[in-house]
């Protein structure tokens, strides 16, 4: 087309051609104060219609001069970092990665800027949708290109950008700052967490910190008991042919848990076989996060199933987790509230994990009972009048409840095969002494646990609890003023403020991995319950869920235990 024939108003501008000379000459001119070619290069690199060949040529020349690109050239560098390289040809990607590698090696001042650019690609690009004349902006799009390219394009630069000495110092703050708000779409959260976990494949040294960030964000979504009762229980009651949760909060939690479990499996298994070294390392990282975030968080939901799932891979992993909990429970240097939480985890894990054999269950129950009897011995020998005081004996009561709860779920497995030996084992537990001791554990345990424990032990004539239960019921239980206002008071049926962390898993998608590993509650048809009690579904602790905000204060016990772990529940062995 001749210039005279162009329609100026209706034609796009003529593409800018490459200026004469090269980048090295341009930098010399820029240093002398001649910015013409410098600005022209920035304009061309910022052109959204720039061709792949042009990008490759420019990057190759810029790489040859990278040692000259000091702080005064940051505008040029930031223009290159804004370059739309994602989705271009493999040649562009390789050249761009080579440029990034050369840049951060020669000019460490740009390391953080390069990292921020890489992390910005961890989520789908924002899209704008017009609804009723209003622009609605979010990144909840259906474009799979961003998700499919991340393995090659988004995370590969991390291997080149991060000298080992600077990994945690520079990268972790950027990863934390860019974590999407929990209110963002499940798609956005899924992409970011998936890519975040992929970073740990390239940089294993930051795995612990990354897991801490992710689990902390998941815990932030849990809310309170109302989260479960409203978002999850109500959603699970509605039949659905899909694996999508009906409430967006529950859906986000389900998606994140599915990503976490997929990551755990990918790390632990190589070509279908369990990789011992990688599995042990991952368990250690998860236990560190467990101690720091999960255990101190009262009534956490679902996130602890990451450890439950990992422990299902081999018995030695489950035993290592139980040993970890036991050490916390029996340690007088630990705060009482953490010791009580550890007992709740221990009892719930033993009761609900199908993959834990009876021998391990019995070993753990023996361990707990030895500690309980030792505790009773200590108070009997003191000569003091013992009383039912949660603030003094919280860990003891939680350990007793863990025994009762475990026995409720696993008594049939203990009795199966050889009823005579099973009954002999139950009688040798000396539960009667525990129940009848002056500390009176049945008074503070959850009513549903007490009722079912009493029915089972009566059926097999192990211990008779009903006289004590009736006496406890006649006594005045702690009263807590209602948070609804007014003078109304309610009876606190959960003075221990306890909960069982492995109560039924209600998320649909990730729950498909948990279901075959999980022991559901099955009410024995011949169980004789207390008058007025009802047969409950699997979540039989619902009626004991605290309805108040009052949490009983607890202080560490001065009781010192020298008990050690039995041989069957010990350190994670070198060979799983």
Automatic annotation (TrEMBL):
Region (Disordered): 532-576
Protein name: RRN3 homolog, RNA polymerase I transcription factor
InterPro entries assigned: RNA_pol_I_trans_ini_fac_RRN3
Family of this protein: Belongs to the RRN3 family.
GO BP: transcription initiation at RNA polymerase I promoter
Signal peptide range: none
PANTHER family according to UniProt: RNA POLYMERASE I-SPECIFIC TRANSCRIPTION INITIATION FACTOR RRN3-RELATED, TRANSCRIPTION INITIATION FACTOR IA RRN3
Gene Ontology cellular component terms for the protein in this record: nucleus
GO MF annotation terms: RNA polymerase I core binding; RNA polymerase I general transcription initiation factor activity
Organism of origin: Echeneis naucrates
UniProt feature, compositional bias: Polar residues: 555-570
